[in-house]
Task: structure prediction
Amino acid sequence: MLLHIRHETLYRYDRPAKHSVQSLRLTPRTETGQRVLAWNLTAPGRQSQQIDAHGNLMHLLTLDEPHEEIHITVAGAVETEEVTDSAPADRGRLSPLVYVPDTELTHADEALLEFAARHGVKQPGRNEVMRLAHAIRDSMDYVSGATEVSDTAARAFSLGRGVCQDHAHVMIACCRALGVPARYVSGYLLTGRDDHIASHAWVDVWLAEPERWFAIDVTNGVPGSVQHCRLAVGRDYLDACPVRGVRRGGGAETMSAKVEVSGDGLQRRPATPRPRLLQQHAAQQ
Amino acid sequence: MNEIFNEMYADGDTVRTHYSPYSDWLAATAPDRIREKLVEADALFRRAGITFAVYGDETGTERLIPFDIVPRIIPAAEWEFLQRGLRQRVTALNAFLHDVYHDQEILRAGRIPAEQVLCNVQYRPEMQGIDVPMDVYAHIAGIDLVRAGAGEYYVLEDNLRVPSGVSYMLEDRKAMMRLFPELFARYNVAPVEHYPDLLLETLRSVAPAGVRDPTVVLLTPGAHNSAYFEHAFLAQQMGIELVEGQDLFVDDEIVYMRTTQGPRRVDVIYRRIDDDFIDPLAFRPDSMLGVPGLLTAYRAGRVTISNAVGTGIADDKSTYPYVPEMIRFYLGEEPVLANVPTWILRRPEDLAYVLGHLDELVVKEVHGAGGYGMLIGPRASRAEIEEFRTRIVADPARYIAQPTLALSSCPTFVDSGLAPRHVDLRPFVLSGRDVVMVPGGLTRVALREGSLVVNSSQGGGTKDTWILAC
Result:
């Protein structure tokens, strides 16, 4: 399926910021199941690019002139196709075992350990993984704004609601509690429903048989599909999120984003996701 | 417990040959003069401003690390042996780090379980496939040695992240030479003062390829850090800039230092900040101590970080039992220095044994450091043992256990006079183009009677260490 994507992100600051550094993971991965036909990133300041530890293309952005806004646009076309068992498995540079230890965001507390033990199996196949995802989805309603971007899996699970990031973290926490490698996926989703966000997060789970990553969209209770475009993977949100930044000065910040994903040339109405990003504010010097 | 090996005396009261000139001097020196010297030593260290903040101390007060005037003396032949063992061990540890971040041959050969390394949070995926100059990761290694039994040396642990304490080694020597010049006439003590020169040479030798005259800086977390004195001291001794994270920035994969003359390129960063805090864009996002984008510049090979990112996988207490295997695997040699026998509680049979012998063993948390989070069975109350048992059973993989070693002791001045106190030794091994070390290291002494914990955070002091020249 051919996906046309356009994603604009705008940060505005109350006062001019003196110095900003941002890492952007806003370029679709080149891997089995998707091919980047054209991609363009427009951003201010100087940029360098690098493949990060998890095989994602990362841009590092440096602005050292005073600035009141940072406007980032990515746009392009990606062709996706069904991933079959006969397709070569993307193993990457890292062993799947790297995705077994938990992180602060995916730490399983008592409640999650108990839940994982009840719904999971140690050597899951696709069906078991789907069942676990459905169980999570049944225990956590999708409620926009229910959680903060820095909330952990344990916190979101205890609330019983969250957004796609929380569903993904809870799924990862459960898998890891069972010793099963699982990683966070950040990307775009083509959806027919206007009210559904197009920036999205889901999970890769390592299957023992066949030995490969299996993508699962917990929020929608479906496996990864041709409607999913993968930007980045990592141990959790922090590794894979589209923008991570640090700045000096600038005062308070507002962020707005607009994502449009359309399939096969069929333009759909843009959806505006709730601003969620990790941006910290260095002490003003 | 077995007979304790005394560094100065054999069989209770026979002075060992290498200590006899000291013993003669001590016998000929009036107790009043010694007392004067103790007061003088205290004043010297206060003036030098050598203090150490104790973690977990609510008052946050800084404290003088107690210095003891009785030197730890090691004969030349013994040091030769230690040096051989240290060089071998550090070489193997660096080979291991290069291997686990590249082809992982030792894992594929089954000599170390893959999950032991790859499922360990100390393994940094960011380092996989990244080349570092000379393939050296641990440029500065502090290897903790102890003596037990009849005086045989054991490696207690390897410190390959940001080992500290070398400033005490240097200051202790300075103080001893000032307080007791006459002793240095009786002994031919090998010098240690050139450590900062060797360190700078090592750091320069691992600059990125093609850099002719590298700029080296020391990155400190700042004046609130317990080892800040050492950071300032070493930077001053090496004649390099002491910087904090905010003094550096990254632009187009190059690291710059802000100076009054404008940005200046930095090639080697001797960092005294843990991995987690060096780059808020790559590690802990809430850290304000590091430099945003530093990891990107590092992975691009534009700057050297010393020690390398990810060395923790080699000095983790759960990796420690495998070091002898690394020496055999990478060097094809038998280890010169022995490891302390270690039970790995992840293994069910080890766990069963240890749970049955908690009152005899030392149990350590694998990610703990500085003597925190450990149980010394023979010294613990029943309640403490039971509390630890609960913690072990809940998460056995977090612990290792070792026999309680009867650490050697060395005469030490305490309130009641001269008395034996347990000691260890931390030599500092430098690896760059060559593997070098100054003769000696930091001798730490447990000042509390019977205590086996020498960490300065736990009431330990230091002694000057004399390696006798041949």
User: Anything to note?
Assistant: Chain B has three domains: 9-208+303-337+405-467, 209-302, 345-403. The first strand of chain B starts at residue 9 and ends at 10. Residues 268 and 304 of chain B are 5 Å apart (CA to CA). Chain B touches chain A through 31 residues (CB under 8 Å).
